[in-house]
Design a protein that fits this description.
Elements (H helix, E strand, L loop, with lengths): L12 E4 L13 E2 L1 H9 L3 E12 L4 E10 L13 H7 L13 E5 L14 E5 H7 L4 H4 L12 H8 L19 H4 L1
Parallel strand pairs: 1-4
Antiparallel strand pairs: 1-2, 3-4, 5-6
Length: about 190
Amino acid sequence: MNAMSHPVEACPALVLNADYRPLSYFPLSLWSWQDAIKAVFLGRVNILSEYERTVRSPSAEIRLPSVVCLKTYVKPARHPAFTRFNVFLRDRFSCQYCGRTEDLTFDHVLPRSLGGRTTWDNIITACSPCNLRKGGRMLRESGMHLRSRPYVPTVGQLQEVGRSFPPNYLHHSWNDYLYWDAELEA
C-alpha cells in the first residue's frame, strides 16, 4: 500500500509528555491526526516524527505527525482514578478467582449486602461465572480463594502493568519512545 492510499484515520499520533515519555501506556496516549495537527498549529507540541502521508488545505500541505511532544510538562496524577478499567488493569485483565480473561466484571470481596464498599481495597476483577458462584457470600462461605489481594495501586504500577499489554498497532516511528519487549515491536 503506498503512502497516499493509507487512510488518514489510520495515522494516529503518539503523544509524549515534555520529558519524552508517553502520557500513558495503557491505553496508549494517542491523538487523532486532526487533534495532532490542531495542537501543532496552536503551538502546543513539537513534531518529532512524521508519516509519509500528507493532508492539504486550500493554502497548505502538511505531513501528518506520527510522534508529538508536549511543550509544557503535564504532571501525572498522583493517585489513579478508581474506574472499572483501572481495576481490570491492576488485576491484569484476569479473574482473581480462576484466572479467566473473558466475560469480566468486578466483585466486592466483602459483599455490599454485608457493608462492603466500592473501593480499591474491596474490589477485584472476576469473570461472570465466578462472580455468580460467590454471590453475596464471604470468601470462606463460598469456598473460593483469591489469587491476589486487592490493593490501591500507584499510577506507576498501573503504567508498568500497561506496558505488558502493547496495542495491536505500533508504528515504527514510535519504537524509540515505547518500552515493550523488542519482539512485540516487530
